[in-house]
């Protein structure tokens, strides 16, 4: 049974749970400009344990949301500073897709859970000072992020950490991360389509979750003006941490 059958055909409760997860993930994306996959992928894998298909669905929904945010923040993009990030993402994403094709489902589920826990743990640890050779560091972060994005759809962590370490201005960092996510998402979807990992019916079927994702993003954009950064960061860490623990337990029982 594929992921859409599990989400739509199992029971109304599962369908509503999928919609709720999508709204929450869209809310996170609307507030921060990234993070859709970090919330969506681990939680949907718990509902529908088909990690390869969940990754593709997450890439599709994340790409649509990232496109809207990228258009909104296009004037803040500083290409002379962030182009190595984009080049790294372009090179790393196809490699991640290749791994997605051959990695056993149980191992991929465990990888997704562990990555979610790493995101939460890293958010609680103090960051070092800026790296001197910034272009090289930015390129490595983009390469690693592209690989993780293609294989698990959770590639935003390395670029986000790099932007934080380098203390980029909020607007510049947000615009760079959104464009990185968009480029990685599109490349991953194209690569998955070429290799046969992404099925057209899966992507088209995923359109039923798009309104929920858009609603969450709209609510997140409105809440960003009222919610403190510290409060949201702690809420995000809690959501990702809990989903990581639950996903790890589920994969170990599989």
From TrEMBL:
- Keywords for this protein: Cell membrane, Membrane, Transmembrane, Transmembrane helix, Transport
Q: Where is the signal peptide?
A: none
Transmembrane regions listed in the UniProt entry: 14-47, 54-71, 83-105, 112-131, 137-163, 175-196, 202-224, 231-252
Stated membrane topology is: Multi-pass membrane protein
Q: Does the keyword Oxidoreductase apply?
A: no
User: Which InterPro entries does the UniProt entry name for this protein?
Assistant: TM_pro_TauE-like, TSUP
Return any one Pfam family short name: TauE
Subcellular localization is given as: Cell membrane
Report which superkingdom the organism of origin falls in. Answer: Bacteria
- Cellular component aspect of the GO annotation: plasma membrane
User: What protein family does this chain belong to?
Assistant: Belongs to the 4-toluene sulfonate uptake permease (TSUP) (TC 2.A.102) family.
This chain belongs to the protein called Probable membrane transporter protein
Species for this entry: Pseudonocardia asaccharolytica DSM 44247 = NBRC 16224
What is the taxonomic lineage of the source species?
Answer: Bacteria, Bacillati, Actinomycetota, Actinomycetes, Pseudonocardiales
């Amino acid at each position: 049974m594929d992921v859409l059958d599990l989400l739509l055909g199992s029971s109304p409760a599962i369908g509503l749970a999928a919609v709720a997860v999508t709204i929450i993930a869209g809310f996170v994306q609307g507030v921060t400009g990234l993070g859709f996959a970090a919330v969506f992928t681990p939680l949907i894998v718990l509902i529908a344990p088909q990690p390869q298909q969940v990754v593709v669905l997450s890439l599709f929904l994340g790409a649509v949301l990232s496109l809207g945010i990228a258009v909104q923040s296009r004037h803040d993009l500083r290409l002379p500073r962030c182009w190595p990030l984009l080049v790294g993402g372009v090179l790393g994403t196809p490699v991640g897709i290749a791994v997605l094709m051959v990695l056993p489902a149980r191992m991929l589920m465990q990888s997704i859970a562990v990555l979610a826990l790493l995101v939460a743990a890293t958010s609680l640890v103090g960051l070092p000072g800026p790296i001197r050779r910034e272009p090289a560091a930015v390129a490595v972060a983009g390469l690693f992020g592209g690989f993780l994005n293609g294989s698990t759809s959770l590639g935003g962590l390395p670029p986000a950490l790099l932007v934080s370490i380098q203390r980029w201005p909020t607007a510049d960092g947000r615009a760079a991360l959104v464009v990185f996510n968009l480029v990685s998402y599109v490349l991953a979807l194209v690569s998955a389509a070429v290799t046969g990992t992404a099925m057209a019916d899966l992507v088209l079927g995923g359109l039923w979750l798009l309104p929920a994702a858009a609603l969450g993003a709209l609510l997140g954009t409105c809440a960003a003006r009222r919610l403190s950064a510290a409060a949201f960061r702690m809420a995000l860490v809690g959501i990702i941490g809990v989903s990581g623990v639950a996903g790890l337990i589920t994969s170990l029982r599989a």
